[in-house]
Amino acid sequence: MRDTRLHLEAPLGPGASLDLEPEAAHYLRAVLRARAGRTLRVFNAGSGEWRARLVRLDRHRATLAVETQLRPPAAEPGPTLLFALLKKPRLEWLLEKAVELGAARLQPVRCRHAVVEAARPDRLRQRLIEAAEQCERLSLPELLPETGLLEAVHAASEPGVILADEAGGAALAPTLRRYPEAALLVGPEGGFATDERTALRALTFVRPVSLGATILRAETASLMLLACHRALTSAADRPCRAEA
Ligand code: SAH
């Protein structure tokens, strides 16, 4: 079984002693039935990944002693995903998959035909953390505040934007190969409004693509863009796990 991996905000270094948040302490005690003395891995983008030992675990507190570094911090470059907010279960699923597939930035955009539902940022962030712990990432994607569609698209004008357009567009693979740095934009469950599509397609740095002959749900379209981006741009032999 894989050992436990926890994302911690605090800087990690040899000899650091860290008290865990009550939820993490509860998880170790009640779910993993961990005992003092057990080792686990802790990580964050700034410090890399470290082996740590539980030196105290009781009803009141969990304390870790950081021991040795397993992986140095390393850049984890990945695409920006621009997407419309979805209803909670689909949104949480999408965020999990976006972490696994290496998105570096997540930019929710406001669209006319989107489900308007206040998503709790702390809960969304928790999904990102859990996914990063599971998939061996060191970094969490940056989750940006929801922004107007065109404002967000203009902010990505420098790398350009690949727009998944259900009304049709160029083939995906050659577009991704040609613009590997471009942000990826997927519309809401209700699709783009006509004027939104017209405004987007008028921008020279927006490249519309088709994802095929069926209409995909918004989260499937996001997943397809991220998976294809990874398949076409990632190095072949990157190991993903440190030796424990
Ligand atoms: N309700 C709309 C579909 C919305 S699908 C309709 O019936 O037309 C949600 C989003 O997924 C779309 O805005 C688009 O960004 C993306 N998408 C879904 N299927 C696609 C396809 N075949 N090609 C390109 N983009 C697609």
Explain the overall architecture:
The chain has 244 residues and is of the alpha/beta class. It folds into 2 domains: 5-71, Hypothetical PUA domain-like, domain 1 (Ribosomal Protein L25, Chain P); 80-237, SPOUT methyltransferase, trefoil knot domain (Alpha/beta knot), CATH 3.40.1280. The protein is 31% helix and 24% strand. It is built from 7 helices and 12 strands. The protein has helices at 22-31, 88-100, 121-135, 149-155, 172-178, 194-201, 218-233, and strands at 5-7, 17-19, 39-44, 48-57, 62-71, 80-84, 105-110, 142-143, 147-148, 161-164, 183-186, 206-209. Strands 6, 7, 8, 9, 10, 11 and 12 form a 7-stranded parallel beta sheet that branches. The radius of gyration is 20 Å and the shape is elongated. The N and C termini lie close together (12 Å). The mean pLDDT is 93. S-adenosyl-L-homocysteine binds at residues 164-166, 186-187, 189-192, 210-212, 214-216, 218, 221.
Which key features would you list for this structure?
244 residues; alpha/beta; Ribosomal Protein L25, Chain P; Alpha/beta knot; 2 domains; 7-stranded parallel beta sheet; 5-stranded mixed beta sheet; 7 helices; 12 strands; 31% helix; binds S-adenosyl-L-homocysteine
SSE blueprint:
Blueprint: E1 5-7, E2 17-19, H1 22-31, E3 39-44, E4 48-57, E5 62-71, E6 80-84, H2 88-100, E7 105-110, H3 121-135, E8 142-143, E9 147-148, H4 149-155, E10 161-164, H5 172-178, E11 183-186, H6 194-201, E12 206-209, H7 218-233
Parallel strand pairs: 1-3, 6-7, 6-11, 7-8, 7-9, 10-11, 10-12
Antiparallel strand pairs: 2-5, 3-4, 4-5
Helix pairs in contact: 2-3, 2-7, 5-7
Bound molecules: S-adenosyl-L-homocysteine.
